[in-house]
Amino acid sequence: MEKMNERKLPIIPHSRPTIGSAESRGVAAVIRSGHLAQGKMVQAFEQAFTERMMGAASAAVGSGTAALHLVLLAMGVGMKDEVIIPSYVCSALLNAVRYVDAKPVLADIDPDTGNIDPGDAEKRITRRTKAIIVPHMFGLAADLNGLAALGVPVIEDCAQAVGGTFAGKPVGTIGRAAVFSFYATKVMTTGEGGMVVSGSKELIKRIKDLREYDGTPDYKIRYNYKMTDIAAAMGLAQLEKLDSFIRRRRRVARQYDDFLAGLDVKRPPADPGHIYFRYVVELSSGTAAVLANLRKMGVMGARPVFRPLHRYLKQKGFINTDRAWQNSLSLPIYPGLARNDADRVLSAFMESLQGVGR
């Protein structure tokens, strides 16, 4: 077989947004209207998202991090409170907890799913615990039943799992509140943007009050966390396509599953609610050499989490998180990935494994 690194082929990125004419038309219409900031298009996006979330109220904001910040504020989390978060996640969660002067308490993950381990989270609960932020990592829902049983309010972080389900219900409709991100690399995108969803209309009312600082009869610290109508126009078009996006992701995941079935790699859990935001495999040892080989062949794999939070905070004792971080890698998977490109990813992955002696 011809060595892939000898071919002159275009680079396959780790992720790529799927943008088409519907998004262009929506954005152009907003520009022609002359109303670019938060307005009727944001309201329409919120309404469409509410319908998708089975009637839970929605508030659009400028980013997923802004969504997390406002949820914590609206829930009254502040100084001397504690918030449990997994270590195996991006630093946005750590930042949001610190924005409200609360104490982040890190928990380990379930080694089979990559999601926060309810048993380990339970050990971290104290009388000061005010919430648990629960990311649904890589598109797979966390154990919400086990976490809800702990008796602490759950904030679902659906940044990687919009359109996914848990026990037949949409993720984002089970906890006290949920946050979504529409960053450029996410399942659906508005460029930058986020959403807060909750069954509590009062909580959403507080968030909408906090997301903008002007035009209010009283003064308190508020924020410039609004979404623009330009972003909302993209969001409406992307939301219409969400089911097709997920079907395509699952199709690529099946192709990967079939190919990797005979290899000594741990594949993502098979779950009917999984949307495969990331296709994460775990090897028997470190991934750096495999990732380097992939890059040489024009395939951009990545660590699924840049760095665990406990390593930033110089904490120890997160055995499952350390193992996942050291041995896991994410292969390209997105709706626009053609079958022949997926074949090329798999061939490059196989060749990369052989190149490091596996």
Summarize the structure.
With 358 residues, the protein is α/β, with parallel strands linked by helices. The protein is built from 12 helices and 11 strands. It folds into 2 domains: 217 residues, Aspartate Aminotransferase, domain 2; 114 residues, Aspartate Aminotransferase, domain 1, CATH 3.90.1150.
In terms of topology, how is this protein built?
Layout: H1 21-33, H2 40-52, E1 57-61, H3 64-74, E2 82-86, H4 92-99, E3 103-107, H5 118-124, E4 129-135, H6 144-148, E5 154-157, E6 165-166, E7 169-170, E8 177-181, E9 194-198, H7 201-210, H8 229-260, E10 279-282, H9 288-296, H10 309-312, H11 319-327, E11 328-331, H12 339-355
Parallel strand pairs: 2-3, 2-4, 4-5, 5-8
Antiparallel strand pairs: 1-9, 6-7, 8-9, 10-11
Helix pairs in contact: 1-8, 2-8, 3-4, 3-7, 8-12, 9-12
Strand order within the widest sheet? 1-9-8-5-4-2-3
CATH H-tier superfamily of the largest domain: Type I PLP-dependent aspartate aminotransferase-like (Major domain)
Can you give the mean pLDDT?
Answer: 96
CATH architecture of the largest domain: 3-Layer(aba) Sandwich
Show unreliable segments: none
CATH class of the largest domain equals Alpha Beta
Share in β-strands: 5-15%
How many beta-strand runs? 11
* Terminal-residue CA separation: 18 Å
Choose one word for the global shape: globular
Q: What class do helices, strands and sheet pairing give?
A: alpha/beta
Largest sheet: 7 strands, mixed
This entry's quaternary arrangement is single chain
Q: Helix-strand pattern, N to C? A: HHEHEHEHEHEEEEEHHEHHHEH
